[in-house]
Batch of 3 targets.
Target 1
Amino acid sequence: MAKQPMLKFVTVDRDMPTKRDANTRKEDFNEIYAEYAEAKAEEQSSRCSQCGVPYCQSHCPLHNNIPDWLRMTATGRLEEAYAISQATNTFPEICGRICPQDRLCEGNCVIEQSGHGTVTIGSVEKYITDTAWEKGWVKPITPMQERTESVGIIGAGPGGLAAADRLRRAGVQVTVYDAHDRSGGLLTYGIPGFKLEKDIVMRRNEQLEQGGVTFKMNCRVGTDISFDDIRNAHDAVIIATGVYKSRELAGPGAGAAGIVKAIDYLTCSNRRSFGDSVPEFDSGELNADGKKVVVIGGGDTAMDCVRTAIRQGAESVKCLYRRDRANMPGSQRETQNAEEEGVVFEWLAAPKGFAGDPVSGVMVQRMRLGQPDASGRQSPEVIDGADYVEEADLVIKALGFEPEDLPGLWEQPDLAVTRWGTIKAQFTTGETEMDGVYAVGDIVRGASLVVWAIKDGRDCADAIMARFDASASVAAE
């Protein structure tokens, strides 16, 4: 049986002040929480049945060796558990926090399928790596030898950083170019801090920088530097820009003040958490405090927006989604969290226009589900005569993201794209039709999960290393 954490009681002298030093209180909390986390990690890990066919592992994009590091954790061999976890995942503490485990590993756990509740794999993964950082088991990036080859990576998101980590450990010279002032991409500016603490991301960024990765921030390709310049400076180039172009809404009043993009809203909130001065927040443009907020969309970004609005002190928060709960693309766990925090979901409801400028309401049309579309999901159909107006002071559009026109922006007509605007690349290697140019993550897949971007970055780095080794072998003959 896993040991239970001991509760600590503090005896207070009635003749002494009862207000305790804040640092002391924090230390006591951290100590109690650490004992609790250790006990829960051991308890949950010991529940793993070590089944012969580990569906948790096969349904993880990285194919993490979950049963083995669960077994190590259950027996107190945490450093070995960390080594196993880190071997296949560049950022396990990040995936442990933000992966939709209910759709991946935990959702396919044999114990979950048998009705006894899943092993909480994500929280154990988070605990293992947090402990590894605390104990000093996470070692600096120290290549065995330096290589002369260099790789330029456009985009400092999870795919680009995963590739940078793997290439730098092999001794390759790596330069990362990014338009923002901090690296991390959506990990830094797109995901709220209550889901992914920003010091966790900054710690990995610092590790990469200290390990020899060069970062060129506030550097926009096509404006501050040309794609050709990057290509000429390196032996290979990885495009890892992600997709940040927001899908738009049509209808009367769609351009009214108070209707904002999800990415702008979340970036503003995250900048505030860093202590940055954000005029759009101070003016109230991207601040939900005291407002009636309506978020349009049913994905994970919509869930991030509604939960951020709650934390900013919104008067009310409602989420409109044109299908029902069973058909929403976002995590059911996130939806439940949002409901527990006070968010109201209006299912089978879609906007048809907006009232007022600045916005005062969303004109909503009720929907029903009809026949399945090409994706197999039932198509929403309008119910005539069932319209109504939802009051709103702030409307946030969370309808998903599309790729920007990179061939046009970068003046690269030979950069082949799909009919969706994503870059054409081999899924296993990231290789594009341009010699020495690779692409990974959402700019290839479309808007997807962080864990898939990490996998793409790692696979692409391995393909580039194989190319470099093959070239070196030919040169040596």
Note: The longest strand covers residues 378-391.
Target 2
Amino acid sequence: MELPLLNRYELMWMIVLFDLPVIEKKERKEATKFRNFLLDNGFGMIQYSIYTKMFSGKDVCEKYYKMIKANLPSEGKVDIITITDRQYGNIISYQAAEKITKKQQEQLLLF
């Protein structure tokens, strides 16, 4: 049986952006715990407070919305943005005034 490939409009990227206080030891500990939660759940770090993960569709993201909400630190701001793979591919990135070319994401196989 051959599995169908998802198109770039079905694949979704979840982007988690956060600004958490890190002045007090307790705040640093909570911020680290939240970052580790994201990493443990398959998110990759784009910048220190921006993490992303690819999903097979918007409905799969719902589970992660709830998981993130259940693991929010007591202080700070967390935003979640969900965009299609096509939209994610249109992001233009620069590092030290040099344009960065993104690698094409490999197709996910779902079982």
Note: Residues 55 and 61 are 7 Å apart (CA to CA).
Target 3
Amino acid sequence: MVSTRATHNILVASNRGPVSYTLDETGALTAKRGGGGLVSGLSAIGPDAGALWVCSALGDGDREAVRRGVGEDGVRMLDIDADTHEAAYNGIANSALWFVHHLLYQTPLEPVFDKEFRRQWAAYETYNHAFAEALAEEAAEGAAVLVQDYHLTLVPRMLRELRPDLRIGHFSHTPWAPPEYFRLLPDDIAAKVLGGILGADRAAFLTQRWADAFTDCCHAFLGPGIPSGTRIGVHGLGADADFLRERSHRPDVDERLTVLREQIGTAPDGSARKTIVRVDRTELSKNIVRGLLAFRELLEDRPEWRERVVHVAFAYPSRQDLAVYRDYTAEVQRVADEINSQYGTPGWTPVLLNLKDDFARSLASYRLADVALVNPIRDGMNLVAKEVPVVSDDGCVLVLSREAGAYEELGEDAVVVNPYDVSGTARALHEALTMPVGERAERTKRLAVAATALPPAQWFLDQLQALRSAG
């Protein structure tokens, strides 16, 4: 039944919302706004569209804001019990579904789907149901609801049962596991995840490969055909060229560019050193350690590059509340230190590693990159691969994993690697570093065009239009 307060015609649901709050020692709350494709998309539809973003309170500041009634127009933040959120978010979403879709398990030891997993799954169901109830309460008759990502796979089915009048879409920002790997999940859980998404009128993905994998899983677990008449779509999120080009030339980026150039230095003959740039979170799927190992092998096998190239590696902390991520971050630091100890000289630091997040510095590194290394084990898209060619001052060569979603759009003009092949990646880095300037420039132009084909605002509007047209 539609609530009397249900006036919203467009709703977005995601774990993380467009605003977060911090609580200082005096009890004062400070709001910080985020960015990304959803923020751009909602901005594009205008303030009169009747849009609402439903999200979760993620920390003490968010929860306190909800309790005080502090918030922003167009945002409803849910104060879900902290233990329930922890079990749903870290126990299921990040330690089970993320690992399955990115093929990350060390299967001799994991996963272990035991009583604790079932407790966490119950919390995941509770968490999803809280979203479904809030959306049902807020949505106007026949409203369009866009549910986001692996945190909320059960919401479409739950919401369909509460509000059959709604247009419901689900978008997956991750890869989707092939059936043989998806089978790691307990059969009933796998069926619930698939059936949850199939409660939507439309299920959409970043690439055709992930869409096909989802369909294959549905056929393998649920039988031929897609139940419920769910339509499958693909929307390849692109880079926001206008924003990136403007933001990358602000004074704070120029300042960081000057500092980076000083840290990189010049070769012994006075020429400019080449740069291999990567910008990632210390996420297991990003494959940072093998990238470092490939750089070390480049220095071992091609001694002519010693003192002539620097690997600028920005690896920003991710999910440090999980021990496996803390251990991975420590391994990134260890390997970088080992390379610097083995090959560094008084005037040359081979690896410039920084673990502190700094967006302006990331943009500065994009501008000076000769080579961009993007070698994930598996990635839904990877926007860094799309952003660097857009921002690069003098053109860069993209060394790209064939397992990144971006490969479908950018692979033709990239130097493509198998992310597990360290020696192959080392050879690819040499090829990229020695590519003629003219060819590099032409490839960069084509990469930038492909990377910006579906900018964030249009990406969101295309989903919305497709959902309204479905059925």
Note: Residues 21 and 31 are 5 Å apart (CA to CA).
